Amino acid sequence: MKKNQILVGLFLAGMTLGACTDDYTDWANPQSNPSEEAAAKYEINFAAGADATIMMDDVYAEYKDDAEGIQGDAVSIATLSSSNAMIESVSIGSVNVNGNAIAAELKNGQVMVNTLELDRITRDVFKSRAHVERTLDVTMNVAAKLTTGEAVAVSGASQVKLTPVSTPEICEDGYYLLGDFQGWDPANPVVMTKKGEGIYTAVVNTTGDSWFKFYRAYDTANPDWDTIVNPGQMGTVENGDAATENFLVWVGDSSCEAVQTPVISGANDYIVTLDVVNMSFKVAVKTVDLFMTGSNYGWGDTWKQLTPIHSAEGEFWTIVYLEAGEQIKFAPQAGWGNDFGGEATINDEAGAGLTADGTNLLAKNAGWYLLHVVNTTDRIVNVLAPNIYLIGDTAADGKWEVADVNKFAVPTGKDGEFVSPAFGAAAEVRMCVNFGGYDWWKTEFIVLDGKIVYRGSGNDQERVKVAAGQKAYLNFTDGTGSFK
């Protein structure tokens, strides 16, 4: 890659496909025909740029001893050309990469942008710093000045590929946290728990603002800072960064000079999540409870409590009837504060038509739904079918597996009852909802003294024996149930 130098933020006033410096804003109004038609009519072609494939490792290697040079490095993300004699000059109007505006310069027919800005957009678009080739869509609006003095608006598109810098290999031994919350004691780190490929979490308690960093697992019996601990540290570009979600830098990261220390703001129990695939982290207040309110609950006059999923930190569920046009939102207590709704990621698998309506969630289609709500470093609302099952000895097939033959009938109205198949045997009844791959007992419940009682995050519940041929009747609107 050549060292093409441009200033970050430079906006081209105009350069021809050959050479010109006219400003498009001084020209006559562009012709009104669609810009795509204009491009075809005047034979203006958009194609891949001279730097159609960019490796950021190579970019940084070229400027290894020239820190100032890399700030101004430029790459060609598109090529403009035309053989039409009526085209006198062309001026860049706007350039977007995956919908993100980027300053551009037209130089000898090449659309040039700042390399580091393109890398930043790639990171933000894919929410990742992973060392993976990314394909970016480039859209351009330009104006062509004709020999007649008129101007025509022209648009086109191309693609460019960019691979971010190499990231550290995942540490098979795991990851640790050190920080103010544990006295920066390298002999006693907070061990993070693996939750998935490259995903690790830990819960920490802070008594105030708490500085911290992530570390590759090391020998705690020999925690020498310089040779054992610090070589595996990960942090942020800005010292004291208090963002609850950000990208990480690491020792040897060519994009930064030093690994700085982020901070958790305030006193509380926090869930810290590390993603070493995408090199990012999140911090969120640990949620013990979750409640729902909305337009049908007097906007805070009533709060419906959701049920925690056993052994799943910050995840909850409920069976609820939503009216058409009903608005809802959630909070970690039966009152306002740290509440959310429209900000959450919505996965509507059951057809409720649940969408963001400002900071609220709006249901378009009335009916019964199972809501699975995640309130951790992510906020997610999954809308699922309200499927309830018998399981075990009283199930129709007598098996300890979720099966359609044991599914409850769903009522049509808000005050209707869910009705189970007839119990297959006289035994202790077990009931559950089932989703997300969780074991059935993590979402089970029972009816005691006429009330639906949920296991939640608690121990095994009191058992109730029923007779063969009876059925379970559940009313989730008023929380009651019976076996008869």
Structure description:
With 484 residues, this protein is mainly beta. It is built from 5 helices and 41 strands. Strands 2, 4, 6, 7, 10 and 11 form a 6-stranded mixed beta sheet that branches. Strands 12, 13, 16, 17, 19 and 20 form a 6-stranded antiparallel beta sheet that branches. The longest helix has 12 residues, at 115-126. This is DUF5115 domain-containing protein.
Share of residues in helices: under 10%
Shape: globular
Number of DSSP strand runs: 41
Largest sheet features: 6 strands, mixed
Fold-level CATH name of the largest domain:
Immunoglobulin-like
Report the span from N to C terminus.
Answer: 78 Å
Number of domains: 4
**Strand portion:** 35-45%
Q: How confident is the prediction overall: mean pLDDT?
A: 90
CATH class membership of the largest domain: Mainly Beta
Concise description?
InterPro entries: CBM_1st_SusF (IPR058976), SusF/SusE-like_C (IPR032187), SusF_N (IPR033408). With 484 residues, the chain is mainly beta. Strands 2, 4, 6, 7, 10 and 11 form a 6-stranded mixed sheet that branches.
Label this structure with key terms:
Immunoglobulin-like; mainly beta; 484 residues; 6-stranded antiparallel β-sheet; 6-stranded mixed β-sheet
List the SSEs and their pairings.
Layout: E1 4-5, E2 30-31, H1 35-41, E3 45-48, E4 53-55, H2 56-62, H3 67-71, E5 73-81, E6 87-97, E7 100-101, E8 104-107, E9 110-114, H4 115-126, E10 134-146, E11 151-163, E12 175-179, E13 190-191, E14 193-196, E15 199-207, E16 210-216, H5 225-229, E17 233-235, E18 245-247, E19 249-250, E20 263-264, E21 267-275, E22 280-285, E23 291-294, E24 304-305, E25 307-308, E26 315-322, E27 327-331, E28 345-348, E29 355-357, E30 360-362, E31 367-375, E32 379-384, E33 388-390, E34 418-419, E35 427-428, E36 431-433, E37 444-448, E38 451-454, E39 465-466, E40 472-475, E41 480-483
Parallel strand pairs: 2-11, 4-11, 28-32
Antiparallel strand pairs: 1-5, 3-5, 5-9, 6-7, 6-10, 8-9, 10-11, 12-13, 12-16, 14-15, 15-21, 16-17, 16-20, 17-19, 18-22, 21-22, 23-24, 23-27, 25-26, 26-31, 27-30, 29-30, 31-32, 33-36, 34-40, 35-39, 36-37, 37-38, 40-41
